[in-house]
Amino acid sequence: MTDKVSKEFTLEEVAKHNKEGDLWIVVDSKVYDLTRFANLHPGGSNVLYADSVAGKDATQVFFGLHRHEVLLKPQYARLQIGKIAGQEEQIKAPQAGDLSKVPYAEPTWLTSGYHSAYYSDNHRKFQHAVRVFFETVVRPESVKCEDSGKRISQEVVDKMAEVNIIAMRLGPGKHLEGRTLMGGIVKPEEFDYFHESIIHQELARVSSRAVVDGLLAGLVIGLPPVLNYGSSELYNKLVPETFAGKKYVALAISEAFAGSDVGGLQTTAVRDGDYWVVTGTKKWITNGTFADYFTTGCRTETGFTVMLIERGPGVETKQIKTAYSSVAGTAYVTFDKVRVPVSNTLGKIGGGMGVILSNFNHERWMVTATSIAAQRLVVEECLKWATQRIVFGKPLTSQAVIRAKLASMISRVEACQNWFESVTYQMNKMNYSEQSDKLAGPIGLLKQFVSRTGRETAEDATQVFGGRALTTTGMGKLIENYHRTSGFDAILAGAEDVLADLGVRQAIKKMPREARL
Ligand code: HEM
């Protein structure tokens, strides 16, 4: 006995069902009965009754107008009543963990037949497990939360905690000791920055820009000062509850008064015995709407001091509407005479600038990792679209101007990835203070380069997709999202121009006195 979808028809049989009240079509060898669906079709019913569509093989026109995922949705998949005898489906549904076969859709280290100086088989095994996790657990949540603007559910956070993804997003270090990472694929002492970068890049492949931040980016940037500069009491309190996904942290540095110019901050902490009394405001605080702790930069008598402030009396957060989804929890935070134990000070009193500046490196590096993965996805989308889209009777790829745009996009993402890998290798070889000294400049330059190329790629991709890149649903939805949000990479963790300047200033500082032409 054959089931419904394997029932076989000939094209001649399908051709008889070509009118209102009796409408079949073929897409990629599969026969769909659209008789009842026609009136519900979001693109209207009349397009389906066209001579070139009704009762015909509509594969080409279908893929000019819809993403493959439409056919995979249960409500549409069940319209299939059989297949064409002698034909096999060509466009396979991707399986969780699959590597894309589209050229440049994966970095070379994941592309069959290519080699890498940096990645081992352990990284590949790890990457596969992380991709399966993100595609099966995070992607569905990402789609839901991007639309609703609601924070990521506790259920997903719990699953991330279970495999220690939250802990791993903070990089290698003693905080990983004794933990089973991704089911034991990598030992804590072998976990390196390439492993970490895999997590950031896989996350960016399945998520919108806002979800990348909503998935506890605040913790990734707010917790390291506690790990690196906090007392052992603070460490022992925060590490278990945050890595278990039960408490959230935000980094509260920027203010309406000062963004990249950290020196201009106005939030003040005044000493009162064993307490600081903190008053001021913070703006653009990622995850601030739901954070339990705020790693906060304050002006103190002797300079700038960083401290951990727990949500409690005097702490208020309210959501700021931004160009991306409120799933990121972007907040305006007010501290009104908040009493903070002096033991919550991170680093030396008055030594906050060093705490913040050294913390920036990892954050900026992480932003480049996610930005590069997002750009690569845009390249993949453009290559697919330009191949399947027929204009003036030919695929878009037959237009030299489109090929030139693809050339620029591919070159940019490859340049970014290669520079990123080289910096990541240096991070693996350096301790924290060496990184602070030697990599602040290069990471600043790398980040400004990556965010700039990202916006150029967003522009190019928008031209390739045309009007489809302007709608939040349908063929160009990822391009629309990327175009709308790629600017975040250029601002968050240090504005592009400031970082370019930082990189050059660091280089000038290190110019040898004897250097002459
Ligand atoms: C199994 C068959 C089909 C299903 C399940 C289906 C489903 C959909 C869905 C869900 C949309 C909304 C946009 C999106 O989410 O991508 C859509 C839009 C559309 N569909 Fe279909 N469709 C089918 C076949 C066709 C065919 C054969 C044509 C041929 C002309 C067609 C023409 C359109 C058009 C013109 C739009 C509007 C596109 C836009 O706004 O850019 N559809 N369809």
Compact summary:
This protein folds into four domains: 81 residues, Flavocytochrome B2, Chain A, domain 1 (Roll), CATH 3.10.120; 108 residues, Orthogonal Bundle (Butyryl-Coa Dehydrogenase, subunit A, domain 1); 102 residues, Butyryl-CoA Dehydrogenase, subunit A, domain 2, CATH 2.40.110.10; 146 residues, Butyryl-CoA Dehydrogenase, subunit A, domain 3, CATH 1.20.140.10. The chain contains 17 helices and 15 strands.
Strand and helix layout:
Blueprint: E1 8-9, H1 11-15, E2 18-19, E3 22-27, E4 30-33, H2 59-65, H3 69-72, H4 74-77, E5 80-84, H5 121-148, H6 154-162, H7 165-168, H8 193-206, H9 209-214, H10 217-222, H11 224-229, H12 232-243, E6 249-252, E7 268-272, E8 275-285, E9 293-300, E10 303-310, E11 315-319, E12 331-341, E13 345-346, H13 352-388, E14 390-391, E15 394-395, H14 400-429, H15 432-465, H16 477-491, H17 496-509
Parallel strand pairs: 1-5, 6-9
Antiparallel strand pairs: 2-3, 3-4, 4-5, 7-8, 8-12, 9-10, 10-13, 11-12, 14-15
Helix pairs in contact: 5-8, 8-13, 13-14, 13-15, 13-16, 14-15, 15-16, 15-17
Bound molecules: protoporphyrin IX containing FE.
Protoporphyrin IX containing FE binds at residues 25, 27, 32, 34, 41-43, 47-48, 53, 58, 61-62, 65-67, 70, 76, 79, 473-474.
Key terms:
517 residues, alpha+beta, Flavocytochrome B2, Chain A, domain 1, Butyryl-Coa Dehydrogenase, subunit A, domain 1, Butyryl-CoA Dehydrogenase, subunit A, domain 2, five-stranded mixed sheet, four-stranded mixed sheet, 15% strand, elongated, binds protoporphyrin IX containing FE
